[in-house]
Amino acid sequence: MSKYANHLSPNLPSTHKLTKSQKSRARREPSGVFSLFQAPQIQQFKEAFQLIDHDKDGWVNESDLREIFTSLGITPTQATLDNLLSSRPGDTSSLSSTDKGINFTMFLTMMSERLFEFDTEPELLEAFESFDENDNGTVRVEDMRRWLGELADRMSEQEIDKFLKGPFTDRQGNFNYREWIKVLRVNEDGNEPEAQT
């Protein structure tokens, strides 16, 4: 059972016919998901969607997903592809694997759900700042490794390595949490928060 409204489905059941005025209104009224983001954020998502949509038909389908995985050096299983496509908005219980896929509005809806599961930017900053002894926007990687592996919801060594291996860790062994939070929250402005004195 889908958690999305049926009208978000790309293929409505044949018993559900819209009148001419309903079709016209549906074309004119934007999806509510667009109000969740500011224009620069929507533009970033549009660019990401266009990178995934290899055949440029406005739909991300199984062949597009295979292409993007292949370009990343990953061989996806059929179950992975099915899982990604079945997580789209709308009632997908009656849809076959040959149906179109995910359009931009569906993609934006899916991204909004993932992003809004996280804490707010100020909450994340406050949490990291409590470990930032020098107030410089970084936390020592060895300390992060210890905290992530020993406290609260413990992460495995593989999860910690994957998290700390990225571009937010410098050669001196510091994790730049301010930049990480900006990327995580798809921050619309490029201004870095001022350091507190």
Major beta sheet summary: 2 strands, antiparallel
Structural class by sheet pairing and helices: mainly alpha
Low-confidence stretches: 1-15, 24-29, 187-197
Mean pLDDT: 75
Q: Determine Rg (CA atoms, Å).
A: 21 Å
Indicate the proportion of strand residues.
Answer: under 5%
Instruction: Kindly report the spatial arrangement of strands forming the biggest sheet.
Output: 1-2
Order of helices and strands: HHHHHHEHHEH
Helix count, per DSSP? 9
Portion of residues within helices: 40-55%
Compute the separation of the termini in Å. 52 Å
Shape: globular
Number of strands: 2
Keywords: Calcium, Repeat
Domain EF-hand: 40-75, 119-154
Region (Disordered): 1-25
Protein name: EF-hand domain-containing protein
